[in-house]
From TrEMBL:
Coiled coil: none annotated. Monomer. Its EC number is 1.5.99.12. It catalyses: N(6)-dimethylallyladenine + A + H2O = 3-methyl-2-butenal + adenine + AH2. InterPro entries: Cytok_DH_C_sf, Cytokinin_DH_FAD/cytokin-bd, FAD-bd_PCMH, FAD-bd_PCMH-like_sf, FAD-bd_PCMH_sub1, FAD-bd_PCMH_sub2, FAD-linked_Oxase-like_C, FAD-linked_Oxidoreductases_BP. It comes from the Eukaryota. Keywords: FAD, Flavoprotein, Oxidoreductase, Signal. GO terms for molecular function: cytokinin dehydrogenase activity; FAD binding. GO terms for biological process: cytokinin metabolic process. This is cytokinin dehydrogenase. The lineage of its organism: Eukaryota, Viridiplantae, Streptophyta, Embryophyta, Tracheophyta.
């Protein structure tokens, strides 16, 4: 069922069926098409304006714009090179009425980032095609330099396999690998490795970017650093990523995959924090640390988002888990972790055995509810794909996804758990309250670069903060409206309880809301300054409703 799948947290949606405001209005469809058609003779890019192409380009994983005519682009552009994209952006910038342009990778955003109402959507996958099929020409590994150059349209799963061919691997991942490099880097890219290595945006050496003015720029921390920082986590507002240089490390071959069940949130979060700490008996044991919330209304076993090659549980285990959930009042917690070893990594199987022995002795999980599997490194990293296949087979993949993703301070995570996991989500919606994975896990602040555009909670002096992802699928009539309403209730609960929360890639209706509720004064001033510098005509990613043309002074 839909509850079997979960992803990296990409965007938050408080209301997914949003009518796009008049500020998104752009030149008429006819005038935009006429301008773009002129590019066909000057570039190798192709243009499509047919209903099939524009309808697909108006949707995303949240399906928030699928039935809103105003979200339709005038055209879809299929570039053959970064120069084609630059020509498109220069054409818009030079126009008396600049038309919106958005880059679309796999369309996995849920807040409209990849839409261009009345404008042009750039089909990024075209950059990686040669003839009628995909090409690996835009994936180049430097063994000596320990990095991979990946086109912005490339999928992370292909980056993985290209690097593994040389015994190497990136360090920081998303939980779902079938996303584009440019897509996750324009957001942040987080998962259970982020506590140690930071998000994916903290693991980039260099970028090729096409800015909103059509300038092609190579940038890094040493060269054009302001643009580099702006684009990473910049929600597509400052430029389109056409290449990223990702650092690589020696690759392991195996993963020891662990799931531990807990009857209360305090025990779970306490153990998670011990595992991601720099010192202590179990510090450093795990390479990957996440967690999830399980309820009896979800279907405790089927609700887990990641699919191992064989089940973690026997039928007897499932019965015991159900009994434990009943004793705990209907809510359980799961700590999910992994240790990588073998291959080119320094860790051996004996090291893993020793570390897990200490960990299982020290942690405070419910005794008798530790489950362990040994899988290949690739099987672990690409585990969500199996859940996707199951949902597609059942016709449950292409449904609305009213996700809610939050960053919370460590000091209030237990208050949030009590009020939301044991309150809002059990009181409202009955047996369909969850209908998807609910993630909760900590990250270390030191892994994030404050100069980049991604927003995390204000520094309260605590190194640790939490991410919570309520990743639901609206599969039946009425689910979408009910889940959106529940997301709003969660937001109100946080406000009423004084729990500061930062939405991870939110969707707001007005610029004022973006400025006040997401960025805050200091961050907003920097974000707006960068917009004026790199996209002064507000061409890029207008579908998010952050900026409109003309930019305010």
């Amino acid at each position: 069922m839909a509850a079997e799948l979960g992803f990296v947290l990409i965007c938050v949606v408080l209301k997914t069926t949003t009518t796009l405001p008049p500020t998104l209005a752009s030149p008429t469809t006819t005038s935009v098409v006429d301008q773009v058609r002129e590019l066909e003779g000057a570039t190798a890019g192709r243009i499509r304006t047919d209903a099939a192409a524009t309808a697909l380009a108006s949707t995303d994983f949240g399906t928030n714009a699928s039935s809103v005519d105003a979200a339709l682009p005038a055209a879809v552009f299929y570039p053959s090179s970064a120069a084609d994209i630059a020509a498109l952006l220069r054409a818009s910038s030079a126009s008396a009425s600049p038309f919106p342009v958005s880059a679309r990778g796999c369309g996995h955003s849920t807040g409209g980032q990849a839409t261009a109402p009345g404008g042009v959507v750039v089909d990024m996958a075209s950059l990686g095609r040669r003839g009628d099929g995909p090409s690996d020409a835009r994936l180049a590994v430097s063994v000596h330099g320990r990095y991979i150059d990946a086109g912005g349209e490339q999928l992370w799963v292909d980056v993985l396999h290209a690097a593994l061919a040389h015994g190497l691997t990136p360090r920081s991942w998303t939980d779902y690998l079938h996303l584009t490099v440019g897509g996750t880097l324009s957001n942040a890219g987080i998962s259970g490795q982020a506590f140690r290595h930071g998000p994916q945006i903290s693991n980039v050496l260099e970028l090729d970017v096409v800015t909103g003015t059509g300038e092609m720029v190579t940038c890094s921390k040493e060269k054009q650093a302001d643009l580099f920082d702006a684009v990473l986590g910049g929600l597509g507002q400052f430029g389109i990523i056409t290449r990223a240089r990702i650092p690589l490390v020696p690759a392991p071959a195996r993963a020891r995959w662990v799931r531990l069940l807990y009857a209360d949130a305090a025990a779970l979060t306490g153990d998670q924090e011990r595992l991601i700490a720099e010192r202590g008996a179990v510090a450093g044991v795990m390479d990957y640390v996440e967690g999830s919330v399980l309820t009896d209304s979800q279907g405790l076993i089927g609700s887990w988002r990641s699919q191992p090659p064989s089940s973690f549980f026997s039928e007897g285990d499932a019965a015991r888990v159900a009994a434990l959930a009943k004793e705990a009042g209907g809510v359980l917690y799961c700590l999910e972790g992994a240790v990588y070893y073998g291959g080119a990594a320094d860790t051996t199987a004996a090291d893993v055995d020793k570390g897990l022995e200490v960990m299982l002795r020290e942690l405070r999980y419910a005794r008798g509810f530790a489950f362990v599997q040994d899988v290949s490194y690739v099987e672990f990293l690409d585990r969500v794909r199996a859940g996707e296949h199951k949902l597609r087979a059942a016709g449950l993949w292409d449904v609305p996804h009213p996700w809610l993703n939050l960053f919370l301070p460590r000091s209030r995570i237990l208050d949030f758990a009590a009020g939301v996991f044991h309150g809002v989500m059990l009181r409202r919606g009955g047996g369909r309250a969850m209908m998807g994975p609910v993630l909760v896990y900590p990250m270390n602040r030191r892994g994030w670069d404050g100069g980049m555009s991604a927003v995390i909670p204000e520094d309260d002096g605590d190194e640790v903060f939490y991410t919570v992802g309520i990743l639901r699928s609206a599969v039946a009539a009425g689910d979408l409206a009910r889940m959106e309403a529940q997301n709003a209730v969660v937001a109100r609960f946080c406000a009423d309880a004084g729990i500061p929360c930062t939405q991870y890639l939110p969707s707001y209706a007005t610029q004022a809301e973006w400025a006040a509720r997401h960025f805050g004064p200091g961050r907003w001033d920097r974000f707006a300054r960068r917009k004026r510098k790199y996209d002064p005509s507000a061409i890029l990613s207008r579908g998010q409703r952050i900026f409109s043309h003309p930019l305010a002074a």
